[in-house]
Amino acid sequence: MARPSQANMVGRRTLLTAGAAAGLLPFTGPFIIKARGEEPIKIGVDNPLTGIYTALGKNEQAGMELARDQINAKGGILGRPIELVIEDSTSDKTDVAVQKARKLIQADKVNFLVGNVNSSSAIAIAQVAGELKTLHIVPGGHADAVTGANCHWTTFRICDTGAMQGAAMAKPLVEKMGKKFYYIAQDYAFGRALQAGLEKAAAKLGAVNVGTEFFPLGTTDYSAILIKARAANPDVIIDLAAGDDGINSIKQAVQFGLDKQVKIAGMQQELEVVEGLPPEARIGTWLFEWYWNQPNVPHVADFVAAIRKKTNKVPTARTWFGYAAIWTCALVANQEKTLDAIKLARGLEGMKLPPEVALMPGEVFYRKEDHQLVPAVFVGHLQAKGTIDPEDLFVVDQVIKGPEFMPPASETGCKLDYPA
Amino acid sequence: MKKFQDWQGTIIVWALLLTMPFWIGHIGGYTTLGTRVVVLAVAAMSVNFLLGFTGVLSFGHAAYFGLGAYGAGLTIKYLAASSMAGLVAGVLLGTVGAMLIGLMIVRLRGVYFAMVTIAFGQIFYFVSFRWVNLTGGDDGLTGWTRMPLSLGPLSLDILHDETAFYYFVLACFGAAAAGMALLLRSPFGRTLLAIRENERRARFLGIPVDQHIWMSFVISAAFASLAGVVYAYLNNFVDPRAFRWDQSGDFVIMAVLGGMRSFWGPLIGAAIFVVLQDKLSSLTDYWMTPLGLFFVLAVVFFPRGVLGMLKRRRAT
User: Fold this and answer.
1) CB within 10 Å: which end of chain A, N or C, has fewer?
2) Quick one: average pLDDT of B85-112?
3) Which of residues 270-309 of B touch A (CB under 8 A)?
4) Is the ipTM, as predicted for this complex, more than 0.85?
């Protein structure tokens, strides 16, 4: 049988050239020569720097960089300086996040892995960290499964879960808003986790779900959803959308005058979103995982000043997540005087964050059973304009400390899989 | 002597691939990166089989890639904890899916064919996204890993040994490449080329064109699902984005970048794509800009891809 036409065949020279070109490609990046004297301890950061979570990822990174500078000024980890090896995981390509996690651990030989904002990516890279026995801190991926059904002995998480936020918010919402809830939420892991968490906790207090609308991520027109919500005649519309979807849904509810007819509230709210809202749409009762204006809590003012100096903005919850994540690595390694992952994980179980890292009232510690941080949460309402500062857009009505609302570890479904 | 020269290209490609774990560390790479190149090369070559050799553009090959990946993952998780069982199940699932979908779309041509393939891919995307109980939804399918291979007394620990896994993937790549090369040299392959060059003339010659396109589509999808299986094994993870249109787009980009219509072009394309993605994203947050620019330049200035350009330069 005849071969394909000559034009389709690849010749020797072509291949040699192409092979050489492909071989040279990895050299395109500039090699940075470092002093070899003090080999730094590497912390791999696998977090979004492009896509819809860019702002959140970059705020987390600013907190991490501040922590790195502070830790290095205080002598680093075990006397060695620390270095952040930062990779863009993208906002929604989980396979890229997985690839980067493997790269960081296998090629860059990092001692710790940190990430990811995206819940799905956080779950996926937790599996890689477990497989490659590397201590992994999740700063801001909220899906319950990270410290629930998909928990690993290597993975610890700083931000809240949907179940935690539901348990914390149910009481203030039922007391202030009424008992008929209508939910609107984004149709993915995070939105569903928040909705399920609140519905379960609120039901215990006698609240009823009069309707739930899940909408696709990136929805821009909320008129039909909001009309449906109004028609169900709830006491309160619970808006669980994050990011741009949060901005658009709240903005449109206010444009339609819905806020005059029915109360609007939600759970997790972020300063990044609130700053994107027009002043008249800064309404409702929400939960902040961390807030910068805590006048009576020691060390918070210093942290705010340091971040302001660095970024010209106040820190958000994301900044604190990143800051606490890097400090966690340093604290536990210096406490245990080792880089052995199993010893570090055991050491972190039950470890309390010192006040200059916790930056919130009450005792903040990693729960032994599921490796979830037990923090306080800030419940309050938004205000159109800051009183003491243009970025002071949230008024904290109540700080609920972790032990007061944490659902028991037995409900998470987490079984830690330590190697024998 | 002429004959030997023709084979030289293939020999060099294989020499580079077979020795990859020994040199990639010295040029700043790592074994898993090489594995990724080879996995995505299988997918890009499968797209090229359809695009470059049959002249039909599928913008939805991620559908079969994803079916292969989920087929393998679900088999290992729920049915049989064996990498080979997962491989067979994944390829079967993808191939059967392509057979059914192929029947519905085989009469369409050009942009309509491309659009409908996207639509079918997106159907699988949303099904896997919403069927949370089975697929894990947006969180992806976790709680399983590829399994060490054992054939009687021989066993190969592809789970923990990255190099062993690379050779496992390379074996799959070799099987796929050999299969495609043999098919292209057969009368069937020549008929596909005839359809690509002039479909109307092929029809007048009495060639059952739709049937050939359907077969080409199914064969191509079978290789795409094989790529999906090894991709799932590579990550020990699958999520609905394996089905999404932008994943299909990546395959087309790799095929076009490296050189559609040339046999090894997609391999070069996959290598450029993966390595650029890996290296640039370590240097800058805006790593997609140079990658996109590179693609635009490639399409404008050397539409036959990198290999096509090199070949043309030699011819003049």
Assistant:
1) C
2) 91
3) 271-272, 275-283, 285-288, 306-307
4) no
